[in-house]
Amino acid sequence: MRAAPVSRAVPGALIVALALALTGCQPGAGSGGPASPRATQAASSTGLADGGGGERTGPASTVLSTPRPTLSTPGAVAEAPGSCPYISAADFAQLEGDRVGQVTVLQSRPAGCRFYFAFDPAVVVGEITVARFPTATQAYNAMVGSAQGHPEVQSEPGIGAGAVAFTTPLQGSPSWQCVFAKGASVVTVRTRQPYPALNAFNLARAIAPKIK
Description:
28% strand, 9-stranded antiparallel β-sheet
């Protein structure tokens, strides 16, 4: 039996916990909540946002109705030297923790950014990509679903409509990234930092006001 087509529940205690952690920060709600990230805990079955401020429940067989954000990898998207429209190189370097040299603009729609290490132009220290969805509810659900399968995930309801952070390889090295939803957009902020998640959260918090 499937839930309403606007949003379907996601199986698994992990995604359930994220939905609970971000309750009250769904699209249309304020961005309040504590400023510090907190680790999510497993919980019993609850669904994703239904677009009406509540949450739906559903059988374990139902699946996410919206795709996950596309996580870019270095070299997968054409790029050109330029200034990032979301954050300056100096601010990115300060918040991420590595010195930044060249900055490129990813030739995607919406545009993204890539930051290279000042002392080795082959090393990527960070990347920002943006994905658009038809509705804010779909974007929110995609943000939550992006963390599926990551037991180390942390959540932060105070960024956009809500954010999650987890590790994923960047040039082969496990690194923290933050995925947040704002309106119909899902933004992925990747760092080269293996630990902790705070750098990724701080970068996402600085970038969020620039996302329309």
